Amino acid sequence: MKSILTSLAGASIATIALATAAPALAQDAPAAADDGIETAEEIVVKGTIAYRNRSEGAEPELVYDQDFFQRFEPLTAGDALKRVPSVTFLSDVIESDGARLRGLDPGYTQILINGEKVPGTNADRSFFLDRIPAELVKQVEIVRSSSARRTGDAVAGTLNIVLRDGYQLDGGYIRGGALYFDDGKVKPSIGAVFGTEVGPGRLLIGANLQGRYNPKKKFSLRYGDSPENDPNYATNEFDNRQDQSDVRNGTDYALNASYSIDTETTDFELSGFWVHTDRLETERSFDYSTETGSRGSVRNGAGGNLQADNSNINNIIQYNYSLAAKLSHEWAAGETKLKAGFAKFIDDQWETENEIEFDRSAPRFTGDRFDTRIVDKELSFGLEHKVPAGEGFDIVFGGFYQDKDRDTRIVEATRQRFNMATSLHTGYSQFSGSPESFVGEFTGFAPILGGFSTIEEQRKDLFALVEGKSGAIKWEVGVRWENTNVAIRDLTPGGASIDTDYNHLLPSASAKIELGDGRVTISGARTVRRPRFDDASPVLLEEELGDNDFLGNPLLKPESAWGADLGYEHRLGRTGVIGVNIFYRSISDLIELANTGVPGAADDPTGDRTWVYQPRNTGDGTVYGVEFDVSTSLGFLGLPDTGVFGNLSLLESDITDELGERRFNGQSNIVYNFGFIQDIPSFGAAFGATYRKQGAAYDRFVAEEVRTTYGADLEIFVEKRFGKRFTIRAVGSNLLDGAKAESFNKFNTTQDQIDRNFDEYELERETAGPVFQVMARLAF
Predict the structure, then answer these.
(1) Three-state SS string across 591-652, please?
(2) Beta-sheet pairing, 704-710 with 739-746
(3) CB under 8 Å, gap of 24 or more: what pairs does 266-269 form?
(4) What's the rounded Cα separation, in Å, for the pair 93 and 86?
């Protein structure tokens, strides 16, 4: 059942059109500077192996061009980011949605498109990357520290996705192919990009159709109540088993265009982006009373072991579009930049969950339906001015304004619940029948608790910084003042409203020191993480945390962090680079759930005690680790056509909640990947492989604890080039049949959690098979 936790999810990904409206990292970062116009042939036919770039700005930053990823044919920006340092995902297998930089929750990572902040799809304001077609990406930048130029929502760091524009492509190319999944399904992938000179400027037009499909199978074993302090975690008391199929099937359509005019003193750009997602998510679950076998539903009969048959179907239709404009002008007083953007996101979902329970005297049917409509609009303006202040340094100052309005409507139909004919025990087959065949018309739609709401958010920022170069040192020192006003209105009967105002002063400093073929980067910054919308909403949800209740807290303050990074990188030959970085974050005012001491709705003073829990700013935490990366040719070994790359991140954290010490939820302790590319110039061919693995993650919440482990991921590609205009690639991914294994400790009350008295212990394993794709590109 959905709750306000879902209803307050953040805005659309598709405002990424702001993306094409501004160069990367707030205009002035060298990594996004105009590198010259690439021809379509250069994009389609790769004559050399691409390596990680060395950025030239003062900030600690890693830059990966699209050439670095393209040969493995990632479908989305999320797929591409699996290959860069310190990025993990806790999404389902063969999916890459919420990026966790340095293993922290997605809400700690700032996602930018061409240097601009974009709204996220979730209640923690995070941004999912699995809807950005990889074909639109020019490069990916990992910014390890923060700058006054950007908003301060970057505790873990920043991921900046730079899209192509009209000044990066001359000519066009067509991309087409298909993906083959292990269940026999075939999905198309088609795209085209064209850039040319039109009048005084350049025009870029792109279109993409991407079939999306993810067939998974899940297997769960559940164990019931355990004796106190049972060392075997209740595994001696089997309860039931669940077999589940989970299929995500859909198509993403994308269009983008930009028109740019660059003159000696004035630059202008107008851009637009549109994305449409049509997706159907289907889950079918069978609960059995035995650990093996899938026999019929005969209750207490000869071998009958089916307890329940559940069907969950969610139909998702999303529209995203936006317009953005940018103008920059150099004049006697310096350089002035203006930008404006408008974005709108419409999300419609129709979800049904229908179940037949057979473990009863008579089978019972239960049907639920939830209809969701979210409309999100954003209007933003930005101003920046740079003034030369002396030899070797500049003063930069500016402001930012954003007005966000979000309307949420979630309604629930009257439940259908009725006992069915006893004969259904013997006459029903889970293989040919379905709970869907017993669904009647849903009526009596009404808002769920907190399901009608509006969010109005206004941001007003001012910043100033000084940057320059002195000998071998590049540096930047700045400060940013951020003011955010959030008004949340619960429009359901009896709902409350809150208005909250935040103010933060965020200093930052970075320096890069050249030392021969190497260089040292050092940086420090203060950053923030604003409260989740659902944590701040004044809504009481009964039995949301096991048998405990959840109450939002409108008085929450943002978390704040002081951080430092110290790194060294060394040039290897003409193109290679090897680097190491140490980072540390001290986070204050952590938002954690706390017991209010108020009895919950299910409280029994003479037996099981339940409580109302509320998020509060309580305690501190630290995050630290070391990151290694290498990207180089093996020319020094006499193998100039062999390229190798790899990275390793060792991640640690400390936090204390009411149950004791733990790591930050969901943080893997290690993540690494490595691979190679072998070019064969004489044959016009290439091949390569990449291997990736991340360590276990642990989550501890009120009434539930989860440990998650992932299997390794292996990808292989083979490429053949034909002349200067045509390339074809075959790629195999998830070749090790990726698996995600989770163990759940579930409790009724907090005291049970302390005493280790389990309500349920569950082991779940999710698997997906390999995916094969053949992609061809033709330049014209």
Answers:
(1) EEEEEEEEECCCCCCCCCCCEEEEEEECCCEEEEEEEEEEEEEEHHHCEEEEEEEEEEEEEE
(2) antiparallel
(3) 266/327, 266/328, 266/329, 266/330, 267/326, 267/327, 267/328, 267/329, 268/201, 268/325, 268/326, 268/327, 268/328, 269/20, 269/21, 269/22, 269/165, 269/325, 269/326
(4) 18
Q: Is the pLDDT of residue 654 over 50?
A: yes
Q: H or E segment at 44?
A: helix 40-44
Q: Which two tokens stand for residue 322?
A: 């936006």
- Written as six digits, the tokens of 645 are 């790359």
The model's pLDDT over 219-265, given as tens digits with 9 standing for 90+, comes to 999 987 654 445 555 456 888 899 999 999 999 998 888 899 999 99
Short-list 112, 297, 76, CA closest to 189:
76
Could you give the count of Cα atoms lying within 13 Å of 457 in the half-sphere of its Cβ? 23
Region 302-318: mean pLDDT is 86
Helices (H), 71-191: 77-81
DSSP 382-438: EEEEEEEEETTEEEEEEEEEEEEEEEEEEEEPPPEEEE--TTHHHH--TTT--GGGG
pLDDT score, position 304: 66
- Which residues lie across from 147 on neighbouring strands? none
Give the per-residue pLDDT at 417.
Answer: 87
3-state secondary structure of 168: helix
- Provide the pLDDT for residue 317: 94
Q: Does pLDDT of 321 surpass 60?
A: yes
What does each C-alpha distance from 555 to 370, 434, 771 come to in angstroms? 30, 47, 47
Q: Is the model's pLDDT at 1 over the cut of 50?
A: no
Judged on CB neighbours under 10 Å (0-12, 13-18, 19+), 156 is buried
How far is the C-alpha of 92 from the C-alpha of 105, rounded, in Å?
Answer: 15
Q: What is the pLDDT of residue 472?
A: 92
* Mean pLDDT of the region 601-630: 89
How far is it between the farthest Cα atoms of the chain? 91
Sheet holding 591-599, edge to edge: 540-545, 548-551, 611-617, 591-599
- Assess contact for 15 and 32: CB atoms under 8 A: no
